[in-house]
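[retry 2/3] Exonuclease domain-containing protein: previous attempt timed out, resubmitting with same input.
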Amino acid sequence: GIKAPKKCLNPNWDQLREKLKDNISKNRFPEHGRKVERAEERSVLGKRKDRLDEESSQALKKIPLIPSSSDCSLTDAVAMDCEMVGVSFLGNKSALGRVTIVNEFGNVLVDEYVRPMDHIVDFRTGISGIRPRDLRKAKNFNDVQKEVANTIKGRVLVGHALHNDLKALLMSHPKKDIRDTSAYRPLMK
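[retry 2/3] Exonuclease domain-containing protein: success.
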């Protein structure tokens, strides 16, 4: 795996680590003898739909994601995330709506809205954050696909469930150069 020296860790990791420590200590010593639910014991983060309550969403707005360096160069490792929109008659088929790639310092290398080839039925704004106005000046799929291919070629690609993102981009990447957090055992507990 990729290991950065301790001093170069992105400050966002430290913030997350502190938040996790706080949540763990709160769950270990419940107030007024309240019994801790099993789901809380298994996972500090819980299910995605339960995670962002009003308190935590306010906390997220207050903590900006700050790159650990001003270095915007193309590094040996990059991280990618894609957002999908719903296409097809029922909107249940996913198509690429946005792709973002950052370098190992957290600086944005690529952040493009993508005009899908099919008609969009569901923007999935609550999940994707994509609104109709975002796609008015979106780039076409082929141009974005080439830009992403040039950016990730010969580099270690980091992300969560990357097979979905690569499928949406109609691309592949060498398995030896993929670091997928959805398959990283310590996070699978």
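[retry 2/3] Exonuclease domain-containing protein: The first strand starts at residue 77 and ends at 87.
[retry 2/3] clearing retry counter.
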